[in-house]
Amino acid sequence: MSELAASEYPLPAFYFRVKFASSGDSADTAFQEVSGIGAQLDTEDVAEGGENRFVHKLPKAVKHGNLVLKRGIAPNSSELVQWCIKVFEQGVDIIITPMTITVELLDNTGQPARSWSFVNAYPVSWQIEGFNAGKNEVAIEKLEFSYQYVNRER
C-alpha cells in the first residue's frame, strides 16, 4: 500500500496534536487552531549588464513566519503560561529557554500522518483576543513562537 493511500489523502485539518518538549501530550497543549507553517525563499534581483529585457532572480535565504497557536485562555498553573510569563513579564535580562514544539496532523486512527518539529522555539507574542458581550464565544489567547528551523518529519 502506498504512503498516500495509508494516510487517506487528503487529510482533514481538524484532527491535530501539539506537543511541547517540556510537557509532552498534556491537556495544556490542546489548541483550537494552528497556523504559520510554511517557508518562503527570498530572492535578490540582479540586472544583467547590457541586457535590459529581464532581471535575474537569485535565491538568497529561506525565511519562516511565526508559528501561531490559539486556544481558550489557560489558568496560571499551566506550564506554557508560566513559560510565557517568564519570557514576557520578567524582563529581557533573563535567559529565554527555547524548546522544540511538534505539530502532528493525525489520521483517522489518531496516529501522526504528517509532523513538523519547530526547533529552538520561544514565545514572541502573547495576545488575548477581544471580549464581546454580544457573542457567546470562548475567550481565546493567541501565542506566537519564533524558531530556528523546522523539520517536516512525515
UniProtKB/TrEMBL annotation:
UniProt-listed Pfam families: Phage_T4_gp19
- InterPro entries (UniProt xref): CHP02241 (IPR011747), Phage_T4_Gp19 (IPR010667)
Q: Which GO terms describe its molecular function?
A: structural molecule activity
Name the source's superkingdom: Bacteria
**What is the protein named?**
Phage tail protein
The organism encoding this protein is Rheinheimera lutimaris
